[in-house]
Structures are given as structure tokens and as C-alpha cells.
Amino acid sequence: MYTGLLQAQTVLPAPSTAPLFSKADSLLLSGKTDSAAVLFHQLAQNALHSRDTAALQKAWLELGKVNLLREKWDEALNSYLTSLQYARPGITPKTTADAYIGIGVVYSRLRNFAQAEVYLQKSLALLQTEDRDRLKALANLAGVYMETGDNTHTLATHQQALQLAAKLQAPLVSAVLYTNLSNYYIKTNNWPAAISSARQSLHLRDSLHKPLSVITCNNLGYALVQSGKVQEGLQWYQQALPLATLAEKKQLLLNLSNGNTSAGNYQQAIAYFKQYDAVKDTIAQKQYDQRVAEIAAKYETADKQQRIARLEAENKTRKRQLQQWLTGSLIVLALLAGILYLRFKNMKVRQQLEQSKTRRQLLQVQLNPHFIFNALHHIQQYIYRNDAKSSMTYLNSFSRLIRLILEHSDVETTSLEEEIEMLEHYLTLQQSGNPSLSFTINTAPELPTADIHLPVMLLQPFVENAVIHGVKNKAQGHVTLTFTTTGQHLQVVITDNGKGIHAAAGNTANTLHRSMGRSIVNQRIAEFNKANKQAIQLKIENATTDADYPGTAVHLFIPLTITAPE
After folding, report:
1. Where does a domain end: 129, 149, 167?
2. Percent of the chain with pLDDT over 70
3. Reduced to 3 states, what is the DSSP secondary structure of residue 539?
4. Which of 50, 191, 324, 357 is the most exposed place for a label (fewest CB within 10 A)?
5. What 3-state DSSP class applies to 524?
6. Which domain holds residue 62?
7. From start to end of 497-542, where are the E strands?
């Protein structure tokens, strides 16, 4: 989302406050957001006392920008809405439009794209002149359309913004827009257009003597690799690497590993994958340290509050020495509360032990000896046949699958992105041992797989069941996984073209195939549904009406309210 290169023009405050606004703006531009926030709050209070509505509107508008930079979304939204309360119809359209743009950006960051579009369209309705304010609104609206997957409006709005940027001689804005377009074309697999857009963005930045954009270099490298120009793509990844942040390095190193694998440079691929793993571990450690610091701060605050509460209770007890009967009642109540607390804590511990037991059982299902022995046997066969490429691919999938399973063995939830990666590795391994098996994984383009979470190790038993029991002995077995959203749920559909639901199972739609994970999965779902308001829904039925091979379709509806593990 484009937010920072253009600033909307506003109505100037009263002359007496202009120097203070200038000072606050300087603090904001120099990155001193906290100091700027204090000064803008002071300006808002002064304007309220003097009833200067223009200064009030500007002060709250600037506070919105400060909170936006500090990623305090609720405070930013409140500041922008407060600014609108002091808007004067027909007198301050630029300031009002700037507030609308700010609200649109906040809603976009919160992934509420429908509301973001509403407010950005409101700003465009006020900004009829082709100036930098209108360009700012168009650039942000183009980003919203790209996020929602609205292909028609995405291209049209980007073209409008690019034409206006060219007219206003704003090449840096054009560079940002071309980078966004390269990302859009990558999503639609239009590699030539992605390459052209990324090159145009880099050319504009170079003409302005600006440093390389890591995102643009990564987009260009990825599009080149996908279009077959692997070596050139690898060069762009390497150019971006020294400039990248830690999170950007993680993606670049993974792309370098995959690109070298495509080029047959297996040693280089392994080396970059090791670097990727190291960076990933560093990021995880930093997140862990931050979480520990937050918990420690909360603990210290809670401890202080408990000491204060204890002192207050002792003081009250002294004042009520003559009321022994009331003190006795309070002691009894305290004992009862303690008993209830201990009982509640005991129940929580037992619940955690049950969940841990279920995870351990799921881990045993995924790492059962038969699966591991088969995997090692396939590796042995590839080595015996001196098939280096196949052995490298198989080893990479096998090691990555084992690592992912072990990494998630002690957490409650995982991201959909990592769950799909585990399933893809598992199916690849099964396919290597059974050439007649094929699989397809369909994910809706607009689905934010990294932001959606689900209970860990939930889907693999269903996929294993489809492979081992569903399409077993099928000449051309096929398994399909489809991920979409419906309402407030993630819908997962796992289908196979096998022999369907056994008649021995009573032919009921809610009976699972026979597999090692059957009772464990039921227990896992039951535990989740017991602890959460929104339940996981499961439905199993024949996929088709074919008499011999109707296939099986497993439908899972998982709430989108599941959060990442802490």
C-alpha cells in the first residue's frame, strides 16, 4: 500500500500556531514520532481552547499520520475520525480528503478492503483537480484493488495513477506503482509483464539515483526464474541480498535455493537453504525474546498490583478488627475461592496434558516406522541407480517434511502456508513410491495463507487416508486438495478417485475411513470444539455417483478466528 511519498495540502492554522506545527512536522519527518505526537496533542488542546477549528482539524489529522507510522491502528483511526468532526464543508476539502485517505490506509492495513475502498473513493470525489493529492488517493486505491484480486479495477486504476504521475513529473511514485504492478503480474503468472514492470521501476529509481528496491529486485528475479531465465534471475536476487532486512533475506535466500535447484546447482541450493534456515531461526528467536520480554513486563505489573491489593486488604482488616464475624466470613470465602482456583487450575493442567497426548499421538502417526522405512528404502534405490537429481529432490522433501513436523510438535496451531507445505512434501514422497499417484493443490489466489491458522497436524491424517486407503490399487489414483473461504470459515476439501466409503462403515456421511489417525482426529476436533465458540465442522461423503470408484470427499470448515501460537 502506498502511503508516504505524497502529502495532501491542508488549510493553514492561525499564524500564532504555525511555528509549532512546523516544529512538529520537522520532528515527524526526522522519525521522532513520540515527540511529534506530544506536540500535536498540545496543539489540539490549544486549538480546542481557542476554538480554532482549522487548527483542530489539522492537529488531529497529523496525529493520525503519527499513529499510522507507529502502526497503532486503533489510535490512528480515532485521530482521523476526530479530524473529520472539525471539517468545514466546502472550506477544507483538501484536509478532509487527506483524512479519508488516512482512514482508507488504516482499513487496508487491517485487511478491511471494502471499507478502505469506500473512504478512498470519498477522497477522490473531493479531489477533482489532477494534483498530487489525487495521485496519492489513486495509488492507494490501486493497492486495495490488487489486494482484493479485482483484476479489472487493478489495471485500470494503476494506469490512471501512472498517467497522472507522468503528468505531474513524479517518477518516484511511478516507480512504486510499477513495483506494485510487477507483484500483480506475478500473482497472475504473467511473467513478461512482471519483468517489464519491474525493469521500468528499477530504471526510474536509477534515474533518480535512488538505491535498489529489494522488493522490486526480488520480483524481477522471481519472474525471470519462472520464465526460464534462471541465471539472470539469480543475479537480481544476489544484488538485493546486501540491502535486505532480515525478513526480506529470508525470502531471498529461499528463492536463491529454489532457483539454484532449478538450474541444477545442488550444492549452491543446499548452501542457500542452510542460510535460509539460519535466518528463519534468528527471526524466530527474536520473536521469542520479544514475547518473553512482554510476558516479563506483564508479570512485573501483575506482581505490583497483587502487592498493592494485599496491602489494601491488610489495611481494611485492621479497620475492621471489631467486626470478627465479617473477617471470619471473608476467610471462608477466600478459602472457597482458593479451592475453586486450585480446581480450575487442575482442570486446565489436565486439559493441557490431554492436548499434549493428542499431539504426541498425531506425531507418532506422521512419523510411523513404516513411512520412514519406506522413505529410506526409496532413497537407497535412487542412490543405487546413481540418480543424483531424484535423490536430492526426495531427500529435500523428506528432510523438510520431518523438520516441519518436529517444529510443530509442541504448538497448538500452524499457518495454512506451512500446513500446505507439509502436505505437498508428504504427497511428493508418496508419489515417488507410487508413480501412478498424482495430486493437485488448489488455493484461492486471494487467500492470505500466511495469516490463516488452523489446529496443527489436522489435515495430514485425511490426506494419508486418501492415499493409503482411498486410491490404493487404483491404476491412476488422484488426490485433490482445495482451500477456499466461505463466510467466517476456511473450507478445505480433500477428494480422491478411489473406492469410496466402505459399506461396512454403515454408509454414513460422517464416518471416517479406517486409518491410524481416525480416533485421534476425532479427539482433536472434539477438544477444539469444546474450547472454542466457533466449532470445526466435518462432513465426509462420496465424491461422485460412480458405482465402482465413487471416490471420497472430506469437507472441513475451520473458523478463521484461530490465532497464531504465542
Report:
1. 167
2. 82
3. strand
4. 324
5. helix
6. 1-167
7. 537-542
